[in-house]
Amino acid sequence: MIKLFENISEKEMLQLKRILRASTFQYPKNINILSNVNRDDFIALIEKGTVELIYTDYEGNKTVIEELTAGEVFGTLTSSIRSEGITCITKEETLITFIEYDQITNDEIIKNDFYIIFVKNLIKILTEQLSTRNIRIELLTKRTTRDKLLAYFKYMDQKTGDGSKTFKLPLTHTELANYLSVDRSAMTRELKYLKEEGFIEQIGKKIILHY
Amino acid sequence: MIKLFENISEKEMLQLKRILRASTFQYPKNINILSNVNRDDFIALIEKGTVELIYTDYEGNKTVIEELTAGEVFGTLTSSIRSEGITCITKEETLITFIEYDQITNDEIIKNDFYIIFVKNLIKILTEQLSTRNIRIELLTKRTTRDKLLAYFKYMDQKTGDGSKTFKLPLTHTELANYLSVDRSAMTRELKYLKEEGFIEQIGKKIILHY
DNA sequence: TGTAAAGTGTTGCAAATGCAACACTTATTT
DNA sequence: AAATAAGTGTTGCATTTGCAACACTTTACA
To answer: What domains sit in chain A, N to C, each tagged with a CATH number?
Structure first.
């Protein structure tokens, strides 16, 4: 199910795609899908497979910015795909549909009965992305690793929670350290302190908060 | 001129506002405008005046997250207005129009001739905000104050620049330190080192890059 | 215009952090 | 099943950073 076409039937989706002049491509594993990207702004829908946005700095160090899977959407206006050092790599065989931004308001589409649902979906996707960005900024502006971790845990608890103060870490430590932009080993050290001081308990991937 | 109604005449704007069930309020200076905010998601248009989004932490320290002026737009889905510790204060006499998100796709509005322009404007606003968030995240993930400053300067040069490697700082040092989430005095120190090592020159608010 | 408020530059010091290196465990791949 | 890659926990050490305090300048405003 593709977020952008939620509540739109298969048949209507195909029609909308045609009107939007969408084009679909299939990529093997480990392909840089935007190597020959043109100038126009676009949205990319991942129909099947996985794509990673990777940042490579001037020394060659690589960081995974985002992992995107089937149903998800990305594009020039929602991610900094055009920035220097950013590449977009398929992790497996992947099917992607591209829609040019200008087509989103073309003359034909606005007459379509499902346009209003399509627009609603698009706006929802954009505002959801804004929300995830705002949350990350809130975490990144914390000055210490401890504050970042505590704020992240609190957020995870609220998000997944039934008020149980218990949740499962959805990221590896390496990924979490990247997400919070701290050194992995320093983060592990801080986690140890938090456990020793009784702020949290950790059983495997499960975290229990005591604050 | 309100971004959300760009390319829409005064007359049509009033009509759209009526269909969208928009309501306008006038606030004196230093008022917390969202003290009695309801549950529904909304967009707020600043018609006149200035509003600041302020974060107050558990110790009472305040940080200005965003300053918004006439023509700009904010809302529950684009800013973390609902988060704990966030307040929204008028800096002067301010006129604000509220539109509920659900109204953006109401039955009447989608028949309006100017709806398509309105939607285009809304999508443009959302993607612009996403872009500013992405840039800030890119800066905040730099590990050192030096890297944050160099990346910020590079960005400012690209943005305002004619390739002259010269631009005017649009923020006070205090504001820039908050934006980059570093200690102000430590930032001043780092700026001094950057000047001493010849990476930058600074004449008043003007910055000249040598890298 | 005079006073209060906000911003700036500087510095010593303690604390937090990144870095590097290593051994070890867990996944993934062939 | 063996081999390779990715992730984890730990530690010493150098560096960076935040913090606090202060004097001084600039801006805002009553």
So the answer is: 10-139 (2.60.120.10), 144-209 (1.10.10.10)
